[in-house]
What does this fold into?
Amino acid sequence: MSLPKTPSFRLDGKRALITGASSGIGLGCAVALAEAGSAVTLAARSIEKLEETVRELRQAGLSAEALVMDVSDVAATQKAVASEKPFDILVNSAGTAAHSLAIETTEKDYDAVAGLNIKGAYFLTAAVAKALVEAGKPGSLINVSSQMAHVGGIERAVYCATKHAVEGFTKAMSIELGPHKIRVNTICPTFVRTALTEPTFANPDRVKWLKEKIKLGRIGEVTDMMGAVVYLASDASALMTGTHMLIDGGWTAD
It folds into this structure.
């Protein structure tokens, strides 16, 4: 009898691009991929934060470099990706939110959130995919979506709309890119404690509501996302594409 062998979670020899990598979920994903053996390129708008993180990663013996990138600037993003060797892995973690009741949403807020969460994410994913197709290489493209891509939420109509859209283009791109052995999936976190979500956690009533919705009874942490991104980036998930991983503590189980 020949026992099956567990596919490797290692990422040695792979190159990964992580946007929104100067803090929060993006930073956690960058660390996780680097620890798994990938050479990571951390991208964000602030070079100071990026350089500090890169230094720490290198001091830990990991391969890392910084790349200044504003994902909402499509032309500059496409140029930056085209100037690099193809990335085997993309973690598209740059995102924003502007919470308000739907009837109070301003056009400015809508455009800012949609411009980054949908338009920026779409064209970055397409740019990384194009480079892989032209090089004849497989890859794993991971969009950081949200549990709010699968439910609704108070004061989150615009955010929900953008994350539902991310799920849509992820599915469509996975169909087109499947023949090229390029996988496209999403990670869908619940509320995770980051700088972006601090205003929510400053409201005791909102925290009470969150803990009631999250069946495991606690707020998400960045570390809760790190194993998931390694799984999706590695051969361990070789047959997964066009789908999502809900890391929501049971929020959507109802």
Notes: The mean pLDDT is 95.
